[in-house]
Each structure stands twice: as C-alpha cells, then as structure tokens.
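User: I'm curious what two different proteins look like when written out as structure tokens. Can you demonstrate?

Assistant: Sure. I'll show them one after the other, since each token string lines up with its own sequence. Here's the first protein:
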Amino acid sequence: MYHTWMRFFSPGPVHQQLGLVCLGVGLQYGELPVVGPRTLDQYVAVVVSAGGGWYETPDGHRHKVTAPALLWLVPGVPHHYGPDPGWDECFVVFTGTAAATYTELGYIEPDRPVVPLSDTDAARAVVGRMARAARRDNPLLEVETAAAVHELLVVLRRARADLAPDGHQVLAALARDAFKAMSVAEHAAAHGMTPAELRAAVRRGAGCSPKDYLLGIRLGRAKELLAATELPVAAVARRVGYDDPAYFSRLFTRRVGVAPVRFRAQQGHVVPGGWSDRVPDPDDPPMIERPAAP
C-alpha cells in the first residue's frame, strides 16, 4: 500500500512568461509502483528523502538509488525506475524557457538522472510551501508556485552531495582572492590545479567560468563602493583589482549597462558612519544613527 497526494495546474500564456511555471506538485510514500518506461514533455524533479530503489537509463543500465537523492526526469528522454518499500518522495513538475538556462548553468542535469544529495530538508520545505499554495481558491497560485520552482532549483543545487568536498572550497578561495591581480592560471597554481581542473571545478560549483565568477565578484564590490562611498572611480577600480581606471570603466559599462559615474548617480546612498561589509543578522538589523537635532 502506498499513500499519495498531488495537484496539477494549467498556467495561462501570461504566467508562461515568468520563465518557469509549476505544472504539478505531489508527495508519495510507501510501496510505490514501478514508473515507466515512459517519456514526458515536462521536467520533473523527484526528491527521494527515504528508502531506495533503482533507475534504468535508456541503454538498459540500472543505477542504484539511495536516499537522500534527486531524480531528474527531463523532456524527451525515456525513464524507468522502481522504488523499494519505504520509498518517500516529493516531486515537482515544471516547464518554461528558463529551464534551458538552468540546464546550461548546471542546475538541471539531463545527463545525470540520479544525483546524490546531502539532505532533503530545504527541498521538502519548498515543496511544502508549494503544496500549501496549491489550494483551489488561491488567486496567487501560479505566481507563488512559479517563484518556488526557481527556489527549488537553487536549494537542490546547494544540497548536491558532490559539491561540498571541492566546488565550495575552490569558490570560497577564489572569492577571497578575487581582488588580487592574478590570472586564471595563477589562481589555479595557487590551489595545486591546472587551469582546466579549475575551470571544471568552478563550472561544477558556480555554472560559469573562473573569469566570469571573478568578474561578477569584482563588479558587485565595485557597485557597493560606488553606491555607498564617495571614492573616485579610479580608487574604486584599484580597490577591486584594476590598475587602469579607463579599462575598468569600459568593462563596467559593457557588463552593467551604464558607466560607473552614471551608476553612482542612480544608486548612490552615502551612509553616515561609513559602509560595512558585515553580513546583517536578521535578529539584529543594522541601524543608521540619525544626527541629533540642533
């Protein structure tokens, strides 16, 4: 015997423009039946939080599934899997144009249908919110569940068991050294890696090249300095690793869409007491001291 709860939706054309839309959500556990062989025209993320079973690829090779794990069912690819007794899953069915981008970034892995996870708590929390939003009379159902699909892809990426040993450590080290005048080859050598190994680790961990990862960190810091300080643009450029302010300005303009001086004019908020890079604590939010009345 098995237990199941599920809801399915049909978002309209306007909601499809959100990039991702949820087509269904469900929770199942117990002695579930074998699934497939079948082929779908939507994406399904199946999060297995307890139990085990098997997954068979189109070439007939069977992979063992042991919770916690994620199964990727992608459009046009046949799938076939069998849960053992005690299998506990939640699933989300979705589609949309943004799925191709998430695939390119490595959040969806068509070539890796069985993904070990470190845990499923965060994913089940997102699915739980989707289930609560799935009441028939909810006027925000399509938008709430679409936003939750984006969040689900993020938490599933973070929960991947294979990222903890290398990907996160490499990314943390690159972020720490992002403002140093180092080439990608020099960053790789600092970690005892070849440039190809570094590219693979960063692609696996962040979905982009080391150059783009470092550039994103540098430009993010530059935006903060432009918005929250009165430092000249040349000083901002040096702070984020560029000795040539003209090159920095061209790079910033090309990537951000506006020149540094224009960005400052639009976003500038010089804070009394200075700018802080301390991550705020939600239970102790930063306070701006107002000057005493004259």
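Here's a second, unrelated protein for contrast:
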Amino acid sequence: MGRATGPWLVAGGVILLIVGLMAWSGWLSWFGRLPGDIRIHGERTRIFIPITSMLVVSLLLNLVLYLLLFLFRR
C-alpha cells in the first residue's frame, strides 16, 4: 500500500461510521421493510428474505463502483 491509499481508507471508514450512526439512530428503520421483502412467521421459526432491500443495495454499490472506476480511468 502506498501513501495514496491512506486517505481512501479514512474516507471509507468515515462513510461506514456515518451509515452505522444512521442505522443506530433509526434513520434506516425502513430498510428491510420494503415491498418485496419476504417475512414468514411460524410458531417456532422466522424466515426473512430481503429481496428488494438487497436489490437496492446492489444498485447503490454498482453505481458507486461505476463512478469510482470512471474517476480512476482518467
């Protein structure tokens, strides 16, 4: 790792901290309760399949990675 990697690691840590604080404070309470997320409750079991939530995460990560690759290819 070179010196140029340090600021990127710090920026990633700050972003993770912000998302963690948002989740802890309740700003992301809607996440996991989107239409299309499957919840099955039985007497002894609970099954949760977050299809729509994971699609949203996948789209956001793809957008971020596309933008990063676009910036670094210059």
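A detail about the second structure: The mean pLDDT is 88.
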